[in-house]
Write a structure and sequence with these properties.
Radius of gyration: 30 Å
Number of strands: 4
Main location: membrane
Organism: Cyanoderma ruficeps
EC number: 2.8.2.-
Strand order of the largest sheet: 2-1-3-4
InterPro entries: Heparan_SO4-6-sulfoTrfase, P-loop_NTPase, Sulfotransferase
Family: Belongs to the sulfotransferase 6 family.
């Protein structure tokens, strides 16, 4: 019985060696060697983008988007006048992403970041002009955590403030942002405020002015709201943490800015949500905190810029350490019902874009493999033809010599 198993094993080894020899003979080139290495490597079997968030390989889309909505590839000219503008929403992981932008991108002229300095110098190659408008490159030039309404009105004048209007270049402004699950984001903001954060320096400029104290009352008296309980945080009707992502991504001028008397609340909410969805869809890029590697992948494909080190998925945050009961979670979701709807929309669009881009990538890889195989077949056919012609010529020459 043992002899038989040894014979079977020997036969399998001989069969494998024979297959390797045949493959070397049929396809001796470098291309095939690379294909064999990729097939044997562990990375080929595991998709690095799939396991980070336990998302199914193929999810079921809820929204219908056109191919133009899904295909995001911009012709970003870093040597020209194009500008990336990062809209940084509080407690969405924007600080981490902002650091990636200035410290982790492969560039001909990397950003210059000096120890002890909050801002980095991100100049275009050969120019003393920035290609990135963000907290860590230009600072809060349009106000602390400026929103869509502020940035779209402020950025063009800030970057070209020293030039006359007629001499200002025709720039492409590529807006980007990061979103986060509304409940997690809300809890994270509460913890941040509890530690003393206020964001008092935010301007909230809309239609040329900041809101009055009547339009935007404060939730607390004193210097800050440190030590506030979650219940107190939820009970303040003026809390800007409520539906923050929708408010910061919408065009507030459509609803009379912070004047709540301009239109009924239900109509105002619909206008804000529709505006936020449309602006998000039209942005050059947006990522999701819960999908770090996919966020990295889509940014790289959109701007044709590669990061040096891969993004890390952090599943443990201050917000995740907060234990809340089901009733409290439902209360937070109710306070952020617009953000919940926006996030569902954004997540669906994000995953559809990721899936679409991966399919495009696989199709392109398949096309290249087919071209390589075609070239290989043509090369082999040419070699066979040369061999047959050579044999025929040798035979004819020998016949002529025999006749002599």
């Amino acid at each position: 019985m043992e002899d038989r198993s040894h014979k079977v094993l020997l036969a399998l080894v001989m069969l494998f060696l024979f297959a390797v020899i045949v493959l070397q003979y049929v396809c001796p080139g470098t291309e095939c060697q690379l294909l064999r290495l990729r097939a044997l490597s562990p990375a080929a079997a595991a998709d690095p983008y799939r396991a980070e968030d336990e998302t199914p390989a193929r999810f079921v889309p809820r929204f219908n988007f056109s191919a133009d909505d899904l295909l995001r590839r911009v012709d970003f000219n870093i040597k020209g006048d194009d500008l990336i503008v990062f809209l940084h929403i509080q407690k969405t992981g924007g600080t981490t992403f902002g650091r990636h932008l200035v410290r982790n991108i492969q560039l001909e002229q990397p950003c210059e970041c000096r120890a002890g300095q909050k801002k980095c110098t991100c100049h275009r190659p050969g120019k003393r002009e920035t290609w990135l408008f963000s907290r860590f490159s230009t600072g809060w030039s349009c106000g602390l955590h400026a929103d869509w309404t502020e940035l779209t009105n402020c950025v063009p004048s800030v970057v070209d403030s020293k030039k006359e209007v007629r001499l200002r270049p025709s720039r492409n402004f590529y807006y980007i942002t990061i979103l986060r699950d509304p409940v997690s984001r809300y809890l994270s903001e509460w913890r941040h405020v509890q530690r003393g954060a206020t964001w008092k320096a935010s301007l909230h400029v809309c239609d040329g002015r900041s809101p009055t104290t009547e339009e935007l009352p404060s939730c607390y008296t004193g210097d800050d709201w440190s030590g506030c309980s979650l219940q107190e945080f939820m009970d303040c009707p003026y809390n800007l943490a409520n539906n923050r992502q929708v408010r910061m991504l919408s065009d507030l001028s459509l609803v009379g800015c912070y004047n709540l008397s301009v239109m009924p609340e239900e109509q105002r909410n619909k206008v804000l949500l529709d505006s936020a969805k449309e602006n998000l869809k039209r942005m050059a890029f947006f990522g999701l905190t819960e999908f770090q590697r996919k966020t990295q992948y889509l940014f790289e494909k959109t701007f044709n810029m590669n990061f040096i080190s891969p993004f890390t998925q952090y599943n443990s945050t201050r917000a995740s350490s907060v234990e809340i009961d089901k009733q409290t979670q439902q209360r937070i979701e109710a306070l952020n019902f617009l953000d919940v709807e926006l996030y569902d929309y954004a997540k669906d669009l994000f995953l559809q874009r990721y899936q679409y881009m991966r399919q495009k990538e696989h199709q392109e890889a398949r096309r290249k493999r087919q071209e390589q195989r075609k070239i290989l077949r043509e090369k082999q056919a040419h070699l066979r033809e040369q061999g047959e012609n050579g044999s025929s010529t040798d035979y004819t020459g020998n016949v002529e010599r025999w006749r002599r």
